[in-house]
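Supplementary Methods S3. Complex input for the magnesium ion-bound model.
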Amino acid sequence: MIKFDNVTKIYARGARPALDEVSLEVPRGEFCFLVGASGSGKSTMLSIVLREEHITSGSAFVLGQDLSRMPQRRIPRFRRQIGSVFQDFRLLDRKTVFENVAFAMQVIGRPRHAIMRTVPDVLDLVGLAGKEKRTPHELSGGEQQRVAIARAVVNRPQILLADEPTGNLDPRTSEGIMAVLERVNQTGTTVVMATHDVGLVDQAQHRVVELVEGRVVRDEASGYYGGDV
Amino acid sequence: MRFRFVAAEILHGFRRNLSMIGAVILVTFVSLSAVGAALMLQMQVDRLKGDWYGKVEVSIFLCPVDPVDIANCAGGAVTQDQKNAVRTRLESPEMAPYVAQVFEQDRESVLAEYYERYGEDYLPGQLTVDAFGPVLHVKLTEPVDETKFDVVTDTVSTMPGVLEAVDQSDLLGQLFDLVGKIRLAALAAAGVLALAAVLLITTTIRLSALSRQRETGIMRLVGASNLFIQLPFMLEGAVAALLGSVLAVATLWGGSQFLVAEWVETNFALLMGKVNPLDALAVAPWLVGAAVVLAGLSSALTLRRFTRV
Ligand SMILES: Nc1ncnc2c1ncn2[C@@H]1O[C@H](COP(=O)(O)OP(=O)(O)OP(=O)(O)O)[C@@H](O)[C@H]1O
Ligand SMILES: [Mg+2]
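Predicted complex, serialized as structure tokens:
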């Protein structure tokens, strides 16, 4: 699904590498946490998977495609197979919950009937049934993040990238979001989640990859946030 | 779905950017009106050129009895032989492509015409029929153009007995020069305005792109194609420019129909003939095309930088 081989990413000439010879494989259907201090390279890793950033050296394969050799025009279709969620939700304030989710289908040219059929199902999946007519500012932070997740998965991506999705939420709300992500993962979607949330990681018992200054220092199949306890 | 979605996006962009879009419409409107007016003026002049030259003839003034200080007239009044030689030259086969008709006006009639024009008491007592020689009027073959005048005047002006060969084509030439200058000025103004239009459209697209960064960001994230992301911006500029061109065509048509046509007909009917408002429709495709080019150019200049994948 995702395969990094000695991937190095240097943003500016002479700068310290944001990723330093990272090798990593994430198989289909896995739920994988990325942990590490601020600036350790978690977001960089996710942007590389999304093909927002080029790698400086090494090789990166995502969904069977070599990212360094992917031509520009193939990027949109490639991204349709990947969903992303961020700490700041990134919703459109003027659109309703339903419209925000439908937007992701409209802009890739999906037909109206498909939108009408799919969006309610997905809103149901993230626990927002009954709130489709609200606008983002009529929702709590947790609910907004659920909308963002619904939008990320409405096109049935094979991979979901989540960059600190609970960063702005209180612990109880975070657990709710985590439950939604687990549900998405159970539908067969591979989930990669960068997080600082110790509680969630410790409780979930999923694979944990820890980065320090751009290097993988720990990779445990069923780990804890801070390593062995 | 796609079409409805794109249409809704454009409308939305219009509402958000109303003043900018208004400016784009007005600038393209004024610019294209100037271009259109210049084109229509040219069409009118081209159509009338033949008419105007057709009304002009070459007048060959022959030497009078009174002495004049011209080498050709050193022998005094023109003789019958000299006059015949000029006529023979004009009616010769080489001149046939140029000369349609020659008729002679005698001295008395020239004097009468002179009095008719300037009044009996102009230079009273000094002016006698001896001050005038006979005049040969030469009508040129159709279609008349400016080169034919020169051929005829050059041919006869050095012949003995010819005081002077003149035509009014120079006057027309000056008129055409003036028309040309007006047209050039109109086109220069239009060019400056077109540049302003490009800058405005560029700025509009840029503002529009900035104010919609979140939308385009999400579009890119979920894999919308470049075309789909950029189309609303391109169309926004294009629709505004097209509206401007449509306004320009309407104004040119209305103007030539209701303002210029009447004014010309009452004041310059002889000179300008009829102004045809349908000319506005003939230039319409060019103006609309120019609007599309302006908008396309602006989009190409901006979009690359503002909506990258
Ligand atoms: N667009 C960029 N241009 C230049 N340098 C960047 C850019 N993005 C990240 N970096 C640098 O790369 C390094 C890794 O940043 P990254 O955002 O991947 O860290 P992170 O692990 O996501 O941190 P956080 O937990 O704070 O989100 C940092 O040193 C950062 O300054
Ligand atoms: Mg980050």
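Chain B has a mean pLDDT of 82. The longest helix of chain B spans residues 169-211.
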